[in-house]
UniProtKB/TrEMBL annotation:
The lineage of its organism: Bacteria, Pseudomonadati, Pseudomonadota, Alphaproteobacteria, Hyphomicrobiales. It comes from Rhizobium mesosinicum. This is MSP domain-containing protein. It comes from the Bacteria.
Length: 146
């Protein structure tokens, strides 16, 4: 995607929103993810992404996309890139999630607003609200009255 002045801000919003999903996916063995990519077991990858996402987002919000990539070199650390389709209400984001040994990153390839505003700041704020609304919010426990 051609970067615009709002790209970095939107990627930061998206990264904060899906960081728990990335953390769950990083618990998987890198060699398993690489094998699934190499042999094009995309249904299995879709199940793994859905399982990680269902802990934090409403069903259908975070989905495996069309594929991915990996880096695995002698003496180097593995890196896995998964295509994701993130669809909170009113927005579709196509992104690539990079998973490495001690970090994860996200890059937006395309973003589409269902009812886009002419104000890019309003679109960015809508993206943030929409991602927040798609998450399961755990209520803080109430103190017991004594």
């Amino acid at each position: 995607m051609k970067k615009c002045p709002y790209s970095a801000q939107r990627e930061k919003i998206l990264a904060e929103a899906i960081s728990p999903v990335a953390t769950e996916l990083r618990l998987l063995d890198a060699s398993d993810l690489i094998s699934l990519l190499r042999f094009e077991y995309y249904g299995n990858l879709a199940d793994l992404v859905a399982s990680a996402a269902e802990l934090f987002f409403h069903p259908g919000t975070v989905n495996f996309g069309l594929g991915g990539n990996y880096t695995l070199e002698w003496g180097g650390k593995p890196e896995v890139v998964l295509d994701l389709e993130i669809k909170p209400r009113g927005v579709t984001v196509y992104a690539q999630l990079t998973l490495a040994e001690d970090h994860a990153g996200i890059e937006i390839n395309h973003i589409s607003f269902q009812n886009a505003s002419s104000d890019p700041d309003a679109n960015t704020a809508f993206l943030q609200r929409s991602l927040h609304d798609a998450r399961y919010i755990v209520a803080k426990p109430q103190a017991l009255a004594g």
